[in-house]
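Usage

Read records sequentially. Each one opens with the input sequence:
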Amino acid sequence: MNLTARINSDKVEIFDVQTGGIQASHSLPPGEYTGPTISGDVVSVIIKTPYMGDKIRTINIKTGAMISEISM
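and closes with the structure output:
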């Protein structure tokens, strides 16, 4: 299975490139999104929130679970 990610509205969708089937989905907080950037099994998204500044959220591409969130 060859996985990649895309931002669709307010969530990150992780899908199989060969079949197009969505394998996992991760909701994002309100804001503007940049990315996703994929490195190995990790997807990173920059979130510009209207209230708390910028954040970088990392998500496991195999499970869709959040690994960490860093405020800048």
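Summary fields computed downstream for this record:
- The chain has a mean pLDDT of 92.
- Residues 53 and 72 are 7 Å apart (CA to CA).
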